[in-house]
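Deliverable D2.4 — example input (C-alpha cells):
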C-alpha cells in the first residue's frame, strides 16, 4: 500500500503558524530598520539607543531578546563604521 504524500491537517496548521511567525519577524525587522533610519539620535550612545528602540518596540519580542539582537547589530555595524587600521612596511 502506498502512503499519501498529501500533507496532514497538522502539517498544514504548522505551516500556517510558521508563515505567520515569519511575517511577524519580517514586519518587526522592517519596523526596526525604519525607526533606526529615521531617528537622528540613534547614534548618541549605546544605552540611550537601546532604551529608545526598546521603547518604540511593539512588544512582540521579549525586551531582553530585543536588546541582545540590537547589541549584535550594533557590534557588527561598529566594525563597518570604524576605519580599518593598517600599516605599510618597505620602500
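Example output (designed residues):
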Amino acid at each position: 500500500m502506498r502512503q499519501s504524500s498529501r500533507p496532514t491537517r497538522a502539517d498544514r496548521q504548522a505551516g500556517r503558524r510558521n508563515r505567520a511567525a515569519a511575517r511577524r519577524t519580517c514586519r518587526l525587522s522592517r519596523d526596526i530598520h525604519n525607526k533606526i533610519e529615521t531617528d537622528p539620535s540613534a547614534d548618541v550612545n549605546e544605552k540611550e539607543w537601546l532604551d529608545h528602540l526598546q521603547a518604540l518596540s511593539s512588544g512582540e519580542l521579549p525586551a531582553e531578546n530585543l536588546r541582545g539582537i540590537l547589541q549584535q547589530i550594533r557590534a557588527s555595524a561598529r566594525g563597518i563604521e570604524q576605519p580599518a587600521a593598517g600599516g605599510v612596511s618597505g620602500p
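The helical segments are 9-38, 46-56, 63-81.
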